[in-house]
Design brief:
This protein is an all-alpha fold. The protein has five helices and no strands. Helices cover 86% and strands 0% of the residues. Helix 1 packs antiparallel against helix 2, helix 2 runs antiparallel to helix 3 and helix 3 packs across helix 4.
């Protein structure tokens, strides 16, 4: 008789553990959904802010506008990282830091192309508009041109 009680208890324990696992999975999904929603909200707020600032300023030089726009993008990402860290969203902050890093690397690459090319920033514009110029072989051909 003791073995029947033990098997029933074991069965009950397994059911409880299964329910806890299902509950945990639901909470995990809700957390992921909430995080995705917050990301969308932050992105839409930053896009609205960018639109307002772009409409208000008339730039004399295109290069200044582009650099300002790049700086604004980075500033917005830094503000999002600050928010993420304040609210314990380390994973989101890590994603944003990766984004900042890749944007700076890309900008530095474009600066190097402009500096080493006789065409300067015109070469960069052509490079950016050419979807085939993403690997180093194409980049070296552009630099030679």
């Amino acid at each position: 008789m003791a073995s029947e009680e033990e098997s029933v208890s074991l069965s009950q324990i397994l059911q409880v553990v299964k329910k806890q696992g299902e509950t945990f999975e639901r909470y995990q999904q809700e957390y992921a959904n909430t995080l995705d929603e917050l990301k969308r909200e932050v992105v839409s707020n930053s896009q609205l802010k960018k639109f307002k600032s772009d409409a208000a300023v008339k730039w004399r030089f295109e290069g200044n506008r582009l650099q300002y726009s790049f700086n604004e993008e980075l500033l917005d990402l830094v503000n999002q990282i600050d928010w993420a860290l304040k609210y314990g969203k380390a994973e989101y902050a890590t994603e944003l830091l990766s984004d900042v890093s890749s944007k700076i690397e890309r900008r530095n690459k474009l600066i190097r192309i402009a500096d080493t090319s006789d065409g300067g920033w015109e070469t960069v514009r052509q490079y950016e508009n050419n979807p085939l110029a993403d690997d180093s072989e194409d980049e070296s051909r552009i630099n030679r041109a």
